[in-house]
Amino acid sequence: MKSLALLLCLAQLWGCHSAPPNLGMTYRELSCDDPETEQVAQVAVDYLNANLQRGYKHALNQIDKVRVWPRRPMGEVFELEIDTLETTCYALDPTPVANCTVRQLSEHAVEGDCDIRVLKQDGQFTVLYAKCDSSPDSAEDVRKLCPNCPLLARLNDTKVVHAVDAALTAFNAQSNGSYQLVEISRAKRVPLPVSTYVEFAVVATDCATKDVVDPANCNLQAEKHYGFCKATLTEKPDGEDVAVTCTVFQTQPAVLQPQPSGPNVEVDAAAPAPSPANPPVAALVGGPVVVAAPQPPPVHRAHYDLRHAFTGVASVESTSGEAFHHRKPPVVVGPRPVTPVARPCPGRIRHFKI
């Protein structure tokens, strides 16, 4: 009998320590397609994209689960599980994610999986915790849909690295600039014609191509100008052919990049989009955010895994400027609600399911 009483006491203590701090012991459930749920989910996606320094922006695809916990003395905390899909917009592209194209299944799509906790208080949203990872669609599924479609190649593949080097050299020669490689973002090996397709990010330096003797002596500009390139290196019996197109993201008003006249090289200067009259949901996100320099992901990979997106990001359950603290998310364990209500989850699929 004493053992049973001790066991019950330990269970109660464990439950108390496992419950999120400052939250009530009961939660309410919303439909995953409820407008309030979707608003908070969009806050979470905007937060994800705001923290991305590598890879591609992601779009909301499906809300899998939602719970809403009361927070004392006021406010509510939304716990969400959401699925996202990679778009074709690079992480540093100023294009709003709403205007970005979701990468299709035939292009070897990538799906993200995120656990997010968002505080809603006085109409303001603060992301308290975020954890994501992502993975490409399986090769088997891509082959079923499109037998001849090329699959993602490892970004450190020797042919991929060579294709990027050749494309960057061609771009610098035609634009009379000296851009440095930031990262290789995506690559595919195409069997017919034998070629390598690559996408990569670049940043401008203060050197011109004709002045460069040692690229290591070139410095990044004070106001960094990033660019994003797509290129194809085609292998031919008599050599190689490189076609490259780059878009330079301007951080200052309209300073157009030189327009080269070469047949295979184009430069497109993209100015930042004007601020909309009605700010997006992301503009409602309150609270400070601290972002450390992103850690380099593993080299033996074929995509940028979202698990690296929040390296060095800290947040705290506060909108009052309190100190940040690194912490693991508390496990939400508490008594069941007295009257649980079954709600439809997961929600609708906005694009397609991987």
UniProtKB/TrEMBL annotation:
Residues 27-133, 144-254 form the Cystatin fetuin-A-type domain. The keyword Glycoprotein applies. It is found in: Secreted. SUPFAM superfamilies: Cystatin/monellin. Residues 1-18 form the signal peptide. Keywords: Disulfide bond, Glycoprotein, Phosphoprotein, Repeat, Secreted, Signal. GO terms for molecular function: cysteine-type endopeptidase inhibitor activity. The keyword Signal applies. GO terms for cellular component: blood microparticle; extracellular matrix. This is Alpha-2-HS-glycoprotein. It comes from Chrysochloris asiatica (Cape golden mole). The gene is AHSG.
